[in-house]
Amino acid sequence: MPEQIEAVDWGAVPGPPGWYEPERVGRGLRVLSGASNLVRAAEAGALLGCGGIVHDHSGAVFPAAALAAPLLLDIARRGHPAARDTALVLLDEALWFTPHAGYERVTEPDGTEVPLCCALAHHLRAHADFLTGLGGTGRSLLADAAAHWRFEIHECAADDTDTVAFGSLTGRFPEGARPAELHHGGNATVLNGLTLEYPPEDDSPEACLRIPDRHPDELPPGAVLLPAGCGGRVR
Question: For residue 193, which of 44, 93, 128, 177 is within the disulfide window of CB 3.0 to 4.6 Å?
Fold first, then answer.
């Protein structure tokens, strides 16, 4: 764990000046990973929660939260119960808090700039088995993450003036027609009026979305759809 924490240049992670304090992140994660009592866990929580990955007094979250999320989940899985509880509280705050304008997105390895909340939800879902096993707290985190759905297109077919897209859905697509961001090749486009044609069944992520007034050529395999509303969540 120390090697993973030190591998990140927290000072190079963007954040709003005067709010984000990168020196708090590495120190806070180190303290939390080694915490063996409530006092040390609380010390780590203060470092991370008061300018590290979030600023809890103002309800702000910083891009560093997305990089810290896998580390916090690993601490929650392996650490002392007090460290686990602190990590889960920080993850919950990071998912709910609002980013500052200009710092509301993070860049994924493929160059896609996704909303910070969607990146956090993706990390939480990657640890779904562990979080489910924690009971109420873990299940609540996953339920909150489900609102930040993600759909990866596998193939498309034209249907009159619409396109039906087949792919993998994680999270929960809401009822009714919804706008979405289409991410592909480092670019993002807003699409309107998406509806869920067929939901996932039998624990399979396979689903089908209807996308009005778009040609299949505009929706290439591997493109990702995310909730459009998440991209507008700024302070």
Answer: 177
